[in-house]
């Protein structure tokens, strides 16, 4: 079926089931950002393959609600599908619910598959529509009736990490979680989110592209811990090691049955990381405590072992990037290079390093106007050929057994215009301001976001995405709960967190600029005025200086840039050939 036929089939099933509006979120039973093929429902239905969006289908309208990161991509991918782009005013808000409230009449029915909707989303739908007399059913899976050949659940093997890698045992992590539960006056907790599960049990897998996670659920019920995972994914030794850590292993499919049989007085569930189907399966006699998973914040604060490994992974990644940018500079214009081919070459450089497992997300190699699309991924149709002119943006990362990397650099391929140089320097100035911020303990991410944006605001420029996101340890490249963006999220920046700092500037149809490093937040001093923190920059890759308009920078920015590039050279040169070392020495010369 093509997309028009799929839409017609959905509407036919809707009519048969008495559904007036059907919601399809971008999610899975674990409320993941990146999905196994089985749950890529929006891509299968509409052709849009961005990682954030919601489809809403009625008999006379079909729309995709998504944010500014995806406007251009969505317009292109939805063309001729029967779906229209509806632009979100605020990232992450379920604005389609208000649209439904205005469109539907009392007695009409809105439905969705509760396996794909987070509790928080389902509650937002119910809260706005039920008072209007509009019915809501969260247990209808229409795609199951029409998706022929739907991919099965992934069967890749999972494995356990050693404590020398993680710095903390599973027993210790479970104990820490129980202490957090005790403070909430409960001893029962159900974990659906895959990165939380992976961190708690020191388990990794290959069920989701670029994310080393395994599909599973974890039930903590008093002293009893149960992992629900597909049979055969763990070998006997790993099962025995989990048993020794106090964790039983049962089949994945038995998780819902276990929830229905809960007999405790209450249970803690994270409404943003638990699907509605799980939530609704909890017996009515059990009180649900809706709180963030305790492991989410514990996981975000890296221990000394994780930080030491991460620094090593950053150095390795820097070697791969140095080789890549040298190769690119020497070959652009002399051989045919495209956005796809350079992304493949970068992955090859990374794959030659010890401990490389995968890339941490699909590489964004955006040449000229494609650089203005923050979440661009080249396709055979869009794949641009590089020429010795203009700006190239490369946002990429690697998954290593000793850490996760995420970095963005912009380089000149030649013939740079004065406006591009100014924009680049302002973005760099923002990166430096964020990276060098000193702030009191308790500072929130929106305050770091504002500090970073200030140099661009001064020149009446801005960007539509957040300034930074948390990064996992050999885990998801996007990790909560902390973020650096304009939303007033009440999560403090804590010592040990790893976060990106990535301001940008985008001129649609022309070029895009983003300069991204990962930083580690740390305490520097406690005094009469309180406890103060700053950032340690972890990313080890030169920042191009040939694009810099030095007149825009203060001396402190020049000093930081020179010191950073000098540090990069010192960190990487022992692992480079003489030719590579000479090339990098030129790139890191003081300005």
TrEMBL record:
Protein name as catalogued: M24 family metallopeptidase
Keywords: Hydrolase, Metal-binding
Family to which this protein belongs: Belongs to the peptidase M24B family.
Xref: CDD domains: APP
Entries under InterPro entries matching the protein: Creatin/AminoP/Spt16_N, Creatinase/aminopeptidase-like, Creatinase_N, Pept_M24, Pept_M24B, Peptidase_M24_C, X-Pro_aminopeptidase_P
Native species: Sphingobacterium zhuxiongii
Domain of life: Bacteria
Domain Peptidase M24 C-terminal: 531-591
Domain Peptidase M24 positions: 309-519
Any one annotated GO CC term: cytoplasm
GO MF annotation list: metal ion binding; metalloaminopeptidase activity
Key word Hydrolase present: yes
Key word Iron present: no
Domain Creatinase N-terminal: 7-129
């Amino acid at each position: 079926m093509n997309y028009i036929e799929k839409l017609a089939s959905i509407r036919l099933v809707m009519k048969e089931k008495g559904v007036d509006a059907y919601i399809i979120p971008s999610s899975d039973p674990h409320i993941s950002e990146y999905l196994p093929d089985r749950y890529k429902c929006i891509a299968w239905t509409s052709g849009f393959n961005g990682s954030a969006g919601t489809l809403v289908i009625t008999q006379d309208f079909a729309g995709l609600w998504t944010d500014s990161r995806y406007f251009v991509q969505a317009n292109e991918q939805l063309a001729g599908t029967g779906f229209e782009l509806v632009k979100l005013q605020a990232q992450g808000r379920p604005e389609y619910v208000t649209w439904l409230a205005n469109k539907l009449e009392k007695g009409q029915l809105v439905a969705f598959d509760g396996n794909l909707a987070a509790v928080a989303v389902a509650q937002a739908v119910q809260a706005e529509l039920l008072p209007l007399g509009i019915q809501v059913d969260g247990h209808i899976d229409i795609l199951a009736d029409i998706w022929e050949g739907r991919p099965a659940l992934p069967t890749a093997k999972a494995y356990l990490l050693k404590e020398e890698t993680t710095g903390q045992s599973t027993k210790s992590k479970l104990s820490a979680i129980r202490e957090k539960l005790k403070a909430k006056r409960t001893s029962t907790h159900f974990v659906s989110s895959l990165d939380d599960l992976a961190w708690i049990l020191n388990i990794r897998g290959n069920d989701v592209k670029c994310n080393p996670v395994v599909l599973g659920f974890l039930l903590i019920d008093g002293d009893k811990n149960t992992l629900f995972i597909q049979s055969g994914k763990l070998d006997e030794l790993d099962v025995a090691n989990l048993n020794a850590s106090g964790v039983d292993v049962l089949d994945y499919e038995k998780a819902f049955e276990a929830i229905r049989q809960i007999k405790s007085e209450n249970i803690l569930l994270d409404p943003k990381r638990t699907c509605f189907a799980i939530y609704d399966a909890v017996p009515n006699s059990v009180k649900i405590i809706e709180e963030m998973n305790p492991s989410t914040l514990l996981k975000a604060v890296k221990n000394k072992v994780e930080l030491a490994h991460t620094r090593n992974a950053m150095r390795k990644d820097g070697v791969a990037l140095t080789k890549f940018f040298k190769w690119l500079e020497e070959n652009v214009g002399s051989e045919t290079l495209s956005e796809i081919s350079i992304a493949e070459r970068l992955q090859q450089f990374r794959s030659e390093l010890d401990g490389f497992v995968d890339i941490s997300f699909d590489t964004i190699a955006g040449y000229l106007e494609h650089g203005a699309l923050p979440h661009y991924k080249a396709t055979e149709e869009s794949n641009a050929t590089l020429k010795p002119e203009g700006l190239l943006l490369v946002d990429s990362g690697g998954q290593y057994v000793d850490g996760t990397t995420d970095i963005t650099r912009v380089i000149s391929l030649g013939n740079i215009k004065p406006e591009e140089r100014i924009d680049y320097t302002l973005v760099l100035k923002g990166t430096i301001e964020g990276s060098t911020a000193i702030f009191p303990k308790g500072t929130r991410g929106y305050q770091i976001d504002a500090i970073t944006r200030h140099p661009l605001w001064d020149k009446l420029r801005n960007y539509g995405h957040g300034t930074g996101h948390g990064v996992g340890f050999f885990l998801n490249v996007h990790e909560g709960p902390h973020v650096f963006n304009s939303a007033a999220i009440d999560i403090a920046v804590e010592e040990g967190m790893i976060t990106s700092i990535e301001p940008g500037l985008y001129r649609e149809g022309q070029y895009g600029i983003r300069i991204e490093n990962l930083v580690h937040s740390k305490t520097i001093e406690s005094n009469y005025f309180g406890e103060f923190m700053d950032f340690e920059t972890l990313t080890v890759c030169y920042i191009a200086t040939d694009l810099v308009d030095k007149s825009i920078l203060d001396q402190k920015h020049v000093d930081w840039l020179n010191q950073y590039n000098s540090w990069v050279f010192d960190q990487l040169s022992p692992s480079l050939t003489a030719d590579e070392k000479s090339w990098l020495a030129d790139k890191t010369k003081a300005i």
